[in-house]
Amino acid sequence: MRDPPLSRGATVWLTGLSGAGKTTIASVLAGQLRAAGREVEVLDGDEVRRGLSAGLGFSREDRDTHVRRVGFVAELLARHGVLALVPVIAPYAATRDEVRAQHEAHGTGYLEVHVATPLAECVRRDVKGLYARAAAGELTAMTGVDDPYEEPGRPDLRLDTTGLDVAAAARRVMDLLIERGMA
Questions:
Q1: DSSP strand E in 65-136: where?
Q2: How confident is the model at residue 6, as a pLDDT?
Q3: Considering Cα of 132, then 136, then 138, then 140, what sign does the dihedral take?
């Protein structure tokens, strides 16, 4: 029989619109957790899409497939003691619920953080230039613009990063991890 990991793993799923601050929060949080001696992996939606989900488009079916793949990898890592931080838009509630259920079926910790930054603020930031491309008609099926984003009804934490610096946002996620015994 194998010894259990020294630390329990868990998945922290950060969902929200493009430009909401998901990846930035995950990066800062990862640094804090590593400094505390935790094994951490950030599964950034854009990076994973280029590798694990290469070839998928942005239809609902392809987005769902991408989210399921990321969820599978996150749960596998978490089951083996890693804290998986997952900044992925994951626009559809049903697919996010599937990922949560997959974690629950394995007894793996899971937290959903809705980075609930309003669309207007995400457009103002437009970190990747996607909103400008959508406004110019160069990009279609943009989540939150002409494709839906279904907000979580009952996330474990809801953060609006408008006027909230990244350190404070990461601290709120860390506080939740500590409160739930996952840090």
A1: 83-87, 109-115
A2: 45
A3: positive
